[in-house]
């Protein structure tokens, strides 16, 4: 059964730390109610969105059966995305505390995940711009977001 997938970022939670990293609340949400790792999970939003876009782009061009990681900064929760057909992926939501513990899986549309990544990244970049924050990580996220946006415009 196909499930909905989204990436939620709480823009009001974004903060610039002394080391120029932006932290804030970010989660994957399955079927509008199942949050992973947790609702209100705080992480390095700009860095992990960049990682996730790279993983998503890998899924786009990969062959069926290939798996890509959607990591969080501390490495404990992990999401593995496996392409199961040209337009669908299976996401495995796991906690990795010495050994992997599978929480649940979801089958979703590849395009839906990409659109959600694009929406979340653009939302973060608008907040970054409003606050006049800048860093190498922000510049990388801007480039990756623009690349993803152009991909969707051309397809």
Task: Please outline the helices and strands.
Blueprint lengths: L4 E12 L5 E9 L3 E3 L5 E3 H17 L5 E5 L5 E9 L2 E10 L1 E11 H22 L4 H19 L1
Antiparallel strand pairs: 1-2, 2-3, 2-4, 5-6, 6-7, 7-8
Helix pairs in contact: 1-2, 1-3, 2-3
Notable characteristics:
Transcriptional Co-activator pc4, Chain A, 155 residues, four-stranded antiparallel sheet, 3 helices, alpha+beta
Low-confidence stretches: none
Please provide the count of β strands: 8
Main sheet specs: 4 strands, antiparallel
CATH hierarchy class name: Mainly Beta
- The fraction of residues in strands falls at 35-45%
Helical proportion?
25-40%
Radius of gyration: 15 Å
Looking at the structure, the CATH topology is Transcriptional Co-activator pc4, Chain A
Q: Give me the number of helical elements.
A: 3
Order of helices and strands: EEEEHEEEEHH
Q: What is the number of independent domains?
A: 1
Which structural class do you get from the secondary structure elements? alpha+beta
Average pLDDT: 93
What is the 3D form? globular
CATH architecture: Roll
Beginning-to-end CA distance, first to last residue: 25 Å
Explained architecture:
The strands form two sheets. Strands 1, 2, 3 and 4 form a four-stranded antiparallel beta sheet that branches. A four-stranded antiparallel beta sheet has the order 5-6-7-8. By secondary structure, it is α+β, with helices and mostly antiparallel strands. It has one domain: Transcriptional Co-activator pc4, Chain A, CATH 2.30.31. Strand 5 and strand 6 form a beta hairpin. Helix 1 runs antiparallel to helix 2, helix 1 packs parallel to helix 3 and helix 2 packs across helix 3.
């Amino acid at each position: 059964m196909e499930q909905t997938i989204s990436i939620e970022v709480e823009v009001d939670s974004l903060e610039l730390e002394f080391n120029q990293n932006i932290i804030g609340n970010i989660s994957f949400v399955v079927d509008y109610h199942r949050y992973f790792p947790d609702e209100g999970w705080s992480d390095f939003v700009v860095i992990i969105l960049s990682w996730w876009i790279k993983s998503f782009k890998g899924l786009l061009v990969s062959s069926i059966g290939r798996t890509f990681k959607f990591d969080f900064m501390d490495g404990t929760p992990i999401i593995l995305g496996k392409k199961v057909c040209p337009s669908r992926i299976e996401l495995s939501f796991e906690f990795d505390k010495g050994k992997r513990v599978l929480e649940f899986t979801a089958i979703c549309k590849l395009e839906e995940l990409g659109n959600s990544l694009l929406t979340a990244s653009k939302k973060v970049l608008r907040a970054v711009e409003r606050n006049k924050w800048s860093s190498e990580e922000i510049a990388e996220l801007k480039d990756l977001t623009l690349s993803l946006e152009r991909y969707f415009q051309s397809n």
